[in-house]
Structures are given as C-alpha cells and as structure tokens.
Amino acid sequence: MNREVRVRFAPSPTGALHIGGVRTALYNYLFAKKMGGKFLLRIEDTDQNRFVPGAEDYIKESLEWLGIAPEESPWNPGDCGPYRQSERKSMYMQYALDLVDKGHAYYAFDTSEELEAMRERLTAARVVQPQYNSITRTQMKNSLTLSEDEVKSRLESGDPYVIRIKIPRNEDVRLNDMIRGWVMVNSSTLDDKVLMKSDGMPTYHLANIVDDHLMKITHVIRGEEWLPSAPLHVLLYRYFGWEDTMPQFAHLPLLLKPDGNGKLSKRDGDKLGFPVFPLDWTDPFSGEKSSGFREQGYLPDAFLNFLAFLGWNPGDERELFTLEELVEAFTVERIGKSGTKFDIAKAKWYNEQYLKIKPTSELAAFLIADAKKDGVNVPSDKIDSIVNLVKDRVTFPAELWKESRFIVVAPDSFDEEIASKKWNGDAVKVLGAYAVALDSYSGEFDAVSAKSLLESTAEAEGIKLGKVMQAVRLAVTGSGAGPDLMVVFAILGSTEVAKRIRFALSTLTVVA
RNA sequence: GGUCGAUUCGUCUAGGGGUUAGGACGUAUCCCUUUCACGGAUAAAACACGGGUUCGAUUCCCGUAUCGACUACCA
User: Fold this and answer.
1) Predicted pLDDT at A509
2) Using the CA of A352, which nucleotide's C1' is the nearest one?
3) Where are chain A's structural domains?
4) Measuring CA to CA, which residue among A80, A145, A134 is closest to residue A110?
5) pLDDT by residue (tens digit) across A340-355?
6) pLDDT tens-digit profile of A16-47?
7) The pLDDT of residue A371 is above 60
8) Least confident stretch, A28-37, A115-124, A136-145, A298-307
9) What gap in Å lies between CA A166 and CA A220, rounded to an integer?
C-alpha cells in the first residue's frame, strides 16, 4: 500500500509554543518534505479549561518565522478539516459509541469523589498502582456493573458520564517505533482511560486517533512523553479496525535542562538567561513576560539549524545546513534515542556563523534600523564598509550598531582606565603632529595611507608607534578596544580624524 | 512504587567486536593582529558499573546504578 506521506504537528494552544514543540514541528516538516509528502497542523484544544487566547496565533507566527509553515492548518484548510479539535467535537461521539457497541468501551458514572475514594482505598490496601482497570472497574459504577435498565435511565436522565476504553486484562501490545524499535507493553499495566469526557469532549487519546485516521496521517512524529500511551493508541486503532492504516510512530528524545536534570522548562530559561520560546510571549492572564529567540536576535535559519541538531545529525561532519539542505539530509533513522541537553552557547555559535555569511545589505538593514532608534542617521555611503568592519565581531544583529556607533557619532568621553594608563606626553606629541599632517594631507586616505602617515609622523617625533597606538585609538574612538583602527580612519576620513584628535587633545589631560 | 525508555569528552554527537575512540561547541595555550574580536594551530577532556559471550568488548547478552518520561474527565 503506497500512501502519500502525511504528518502532523498537533500542539495544544495552552501558552507559548515551547522550543521542544518547535523542534517536533521541524522534524515533522523535514520528514514530510523529504518524503515528498504533506505537513499539517492540527490544534488540539479539547481541554477548554486550558485554552489560552493568543496561543494559536503564536504557534502560527512561530512556524512562519522559521519558514516551516504547514500546508494544511486551521488558517489554511485542506480537505480534512476542520483543523481544530474543538470544531470537530460532533465527530467524536459516534466513534466512542462504536467502541461501546463493539464491547471495547463502556459508560462510567463515577464522580470524581468516588474515583478519589477508590484510589485511596487501593492505596490503603497497598495496591501499587491504583487505577481504573480490569479489576477495579468491577467495583465501580459503570455500564459493566450496572443493570442495563439503570444505565439506560441514567443516560436518559442526563447523568454525567464518561466513556472509558475497556483494556484487556492480560495482553501484550507491541509497536515498532521508528526510533526505538520494538516496544512491548502488557495491557495489565494500562488503565481504562477516559475516551469521552463528561463535557462531551473527547480526550487526547480518542481525538488523536480519530483525527489522525480521518486526516490520513501516515507517520506520527511526537515527543517521547507519548511513548507510554502509545500502546493504548495501538489498541484503539485495533478496536476501530484501522490497523492496516495505522501510522508509524517515531518518539523523539526530550529536550533537557542544561544543568542538572529534567525536562527543559520555562523556568530554566529565566534562570539561565536565555529564551525557551521562539517568540516573545506575554501570558494574557498573569501578564508574565517571556523572551523569545527572535527578539533576542537569533536569525531564523541559525535557530533552525541549531534546533535540527538537537537530537539529529547527518552522520558526517557538516554542521551548517540551510532548510533545503536539512530536508535533503534528514532521515528519521539518524535521530538519536537519548535526551538532549540544551546548550545556548551552541545556539550563539550558529548565530555568529549565519551572521558572517549574510549579505551585507541584509545586515545593513539591522544597522540602519538600530541607529534610527538611537536617533542617528548612518551616512549611506559608509554603511557597507561599517557592516563589513564589524560583522565578524558580533553574535546578534543588534550588536552591529553597538559596535560601530562610535564611527558615526564622535565620542564625547573617553575610557578613563585606558586614559590613565596610556595618555602620556609621547601620545600627545604624536597625535598633535598627526593632526597637523592630516590637515595638509591630500591623497587618497585609505587604511594603508592612514597607517603610513601615522608611522612616519611617529618616526619624525622619534617615538615608537607601538607605544602610543592605544592612545591614538582612545583619542579617535573613545575606547581602548575595537575593530581595525586604520580601517576606521579610512571610513572616517582625514578631516574627521584630525577633528577628533584635537577634541581629545583638548579634553584629556596628561597624568604623570 | 510500577511501566516504558535512555546511558561515548562539561555539552551536542560520530563510530562500532581488534581505532592513537573522530568532529563540533565551550575551556586553556600559542600564532595572526601595534587593541579587542575574527581566523589558524595546539592541548586538556568520554565509552556509567559488574558479570558473561569471545582469542579480543566501548561495541553483543544479562544484571546493577543513574537519569528521564509516563502513571488525570491535561495534552
């Protein structure tokens, strides 16, 4: 049977999309493209209590920012809509009822108090795993224990009920995970999970299976947290009679905290000072703000590249991949099995790499925008040379302006520590002479000529240039470190350099 | 506790019965640079442990340990 590959990303709109979710989306996208199939998105909003306004838009915007937008989604529906489970509500009950008819599911009328009491009773009786299962269901209020008449009358009188799956007592359930191989679980460890909630909504498990089937999903690529319930899902496919089109499963390793142990959480990002979300997010209820990779200055292709390598590698030593190259190289087989600790240093490194290869014009846009925010206009004839001068020095685009501001805006103060150490008589002498030499200089003023003029000036004063070089830098830039000074001079032009030197000369005083 | 899963440098990982166990990030040192960064080079740094199987195990098997996920009318 040759079906078109269809994979889905199925997030819940319960807040900002976590970076682990983004990676899951990415792997789904890569797999779909690689296989010439389709990548779709389904919103799993069956829990009305956890719905967060704005979360869906956030998901959409995140994927679009990264260039991995789904081909079918709530906002761009295909033939398998709707793409929000809340809008598919009316579809689920018939499937649950089908299972009841087949004897694979049953009505349960237990109240939450009764369930709680049952668990307490079992715990008291030292039952290791208190759960609603083949043994305990015989003592609860459900259509297996109640008379047919009572069930009927309860149903008719509108008694709240759920529909639970009837897990067999002792049956081995096996599934062949694409990443982990055969996983076998005995049904005795599973419980009679709720399929339909009393509010008429399906639980994840039911909705997931029904929708994946209806949406013709061929491969389920999701986080490892779903592995324990995968056998339940296999059982559902079997009971529905859909085993022949059951998707293949691939359970992705989890993203872990960089320090210590555990799943990466929002808290970790705050604590360690890096984002765990793709975009900035403000919780609509608490007003709490979380920062995103995009706003921190991560480039989408760098972030994508970084993310792809969190748990996957191409098997050779290449590390820089465009989205297209990732698609080309991607295989599920090369996804790792073990949890991956999140390392922000690597993300920064990727960003630097991408910044280096970005066209000057794109980088210039960042520089111009940031300068503008600063109330400064960068002369257009100097932009390219400024960008080229500083782009190898920065991790984030915002640093472009920080690193080069001094070129456009003459310093009005000077690094005191450097001044106290380097501003001496020799420096003053050389600088004074250089300013004069600059006044009468008439050739092309580039880095080479700026340097040779400076060298000859120092020589004429009988002073070794190396001794005063940092003072020269200080005079013109206000600081003791920065990009190649002679290139800076060339960008500035001889007049401006002379002007700045004179300002420094009149401002700084020589300390013994 | 139970079920399932995982375990190679600090981190991401390659590898796989016989290797000087490879790369990258990070770290350190050196070179380049009359600064800082970039770049280049070098270095330190790993097969969780114990049993098997085998001529030989980091690699295969079994245990143990550790870590993780799950154990809701959440997904």
Assistant:
1) 85
2) B38
3) 6-72+207-254, 90-196, 266-356, 360-507
4) A145
5) 988 899 999 999 999 9
6) 999 999 999 999 999 999 999 999 999 999 99
7) yes
8) A115-124
9) 24
Strand B and A263 CB separated by under 7 Å: yes
**Cα A383 from Cα A378, distance rounded (Å):** 7
d(CA A367, CA A229): 50
Q: Which two tokens stand for residue A504?
A: 């420094």
* CATH code linked to domain A266-356: 1.10.1160.10
What is the CATH superfamily name and number for domain A90-196? Glutamyl-tRNA Synthetase; Domain 3 (3.90.800.10)
Neighbours of A501 (CB within 10 A): 22
Among A34, A197, A266, A421, which one carries the catalytic annotation?
A266
Tokens of A492: 């500035």
Q: Which nucleotides of B are covered by protein (CB under 7 A)?
A: 1-8, 10-15, 22-26, 33-39, 67-75
* A373 Cβ nearer than 7 Å to chain B strand: no
Does the active-site annotation cover A266? Answer: yes
* pLDDT at A512 exceeding the cut of 70: no
Q: How far is the CA of A139 from the C1' of B15 (A)?
A: 55
| C1'-nearest nucleotide to the CA of A256 | B68
